[in-house]
Amino acid sequence: MRARSIDPGTADLAGLIEQGVRLHGHLGPYLVAGIRMGLLALELLGSSGYFGLSATSDAGTETPLACLSDGIQIGSGCTTGKGNLRVTELRRPRATFRSDAGRYVTIELRPDAAAAFTSGDLETESAQVARAPREALFTWTIG
C-alpha cells in the first residue's frame, strides 16, 4: 500500500473541508481554521503530511475550540490514532508541527480572527475562514 500525501500547493480546500465535515460531524470555523493551519504547516516545513511529521494542538478538549484539532488532522494527516497528534489542555488556538528532520513551526489563530467567530452562523464564518488570506488568520514562528 502506498502512503498518502498532501500537496499544500494544489490541495483542494473544498474537498478537505468535506472530509473534515465527515470526520467531525458538522461545519465550523475552527474546523476550517485547523485544516488551513495543517496545510500551512506542510508548506512551511516542506512536508507531504501523514508521516515524518508530528503536531501538538493546544486547543484542548472543549468545544468549539477543540474543533481545531479535527481540522489539523485533515490538513496535516497527523492523527491521534497514529500517535503523531497530541492535544494539550492549554485552550489556545495554536499548534506546533515538527518534522522528523528537526524543523518546527508554531501557528496560532490571530485573536481578531477568532473574535469574529461569534455570529453563530457557522456556514458564513467557515466560508470567511476558507477565503481569508492566511496572514489575516494566523501568526507563525519557524525554527
- Topology order in helix (H) and strand (E) letters: HHEHEEEHHHE
Question: What is the number of E strands?
Answer: 5
- Overall 3D shape: globular
Work out the oligomeric state of the chains in this entry. single chain
Q: What percentage of the residues does DSSP assign to strands (E)? A: 15-25%
**Rg for CA atoms:** 14 Å
- Please give the largest β-sheet: 5 strands, mixed
Strand order of the largest sheet: 2-1-3-4-5
Stretches where pLDDT is under 50 for at least 5 consecutive residues are none
Q: What is the straight-line distance between the termini?
A: 33 Å
What's the mean pLDDT score? 95
The SS-based structural class is alpha+beta
Number of helices: 6
What helical percentage do the residues reach? 40-55%
Structural account:
By secondary structure, this protein is α+β, with helices and mostly antiparallel strands. It has helices at residues 13-24, 29-45, 67-76, 111-115, 122-131, 134-137, and strands at 53-57, 85-87, 94-99, 104-109, 138-142. The chain has a five-stranded mixed beta sheet with strand order 2-1-3-4-5. Strand 1, helix 3 and strand 2 (85-87) form a beta-alpha-beta unit.
Features:
143 residues, alpha+beta, 5-stranded mixed beta sheet, 6 helices, 5 strands, 41% helix, globular
